[in-house]
Design goal:
The protein has one domain: 60s Ribosomal Protein L30, Chain: A (2-Layer Sandwich), CATH 3.30.1330.40. It has three helices and five strands; from the N terminus they run E-E-H-E-H-H-E-E. Helix 1 packs parallel to helix 3. The chain is globular. InterPro entries: RutC-like_sf, YjgF/YER057c/UK114. One of its GO terms (cellular component) is cytosol. Pfam families: Ribonuc_L-PSP (PF01042).
């Protein structure tokens, strides 16, 4: 599953369907021009999570279909310091839906300027599932 509104993947997929389970590939804060958005962890969270939701919605999924989210962070204290703002972005984009989550610290991500990468799993009800052709 590779939505046209996201950067064209090379060597990976934005999402892979297995039955009605969507495995969402890791999303950094890449914009349509293949550049990491500026502005720090809050804006990078907004872009990365928005990219995840774009892939989810391309197959008929909604935020409430997310069952698991893993967030990789290059600076955990920075993420924690902005937790309230990040929570506001989450609620703006997904509402009051909170799947199982993990936050994992790492030394670097694929793009050197990336501060965050988000991946997840969603189970989409058959009546909303849109299979790619």
């Amino acid at each position: 599953m590779n939505p046209a509104s996201l950067p064209a993947p090379r060597g990976y997929s934005h999402g892979t369907l297995a039955g009605n389970t969507l495995h969402l590939g890791g999303q950094t804060a890449l914009d349509a021009d293949m550049k990491i958005v500026p502005g720090g962890i809050v804006e990078q969270f907004r872009q990365a999570f928005g990219n995840v939701l774009t892939t989810l919605r391309a197959v008929g999924g909604e935020p409430e279909d997310l069952v698991s989210i893993t967030i990789y962070l290059t600076d955990i204290p920075d993420y924690q310091a902005h937790g309230k703002e990040i929570g506001e972005v989450w609620r703006e984009l997904a509402g009051p839906v909170y799947p199982a989550m993990a936050g994992i610290g790492c030394t670097a991500l694929w793009q050197p300027e990336a501060l965050i990468e988000i991946l997840g799993v969603a189970v989409i009800p058959e009546d909303r599932l849109v299979r790619p052709s």
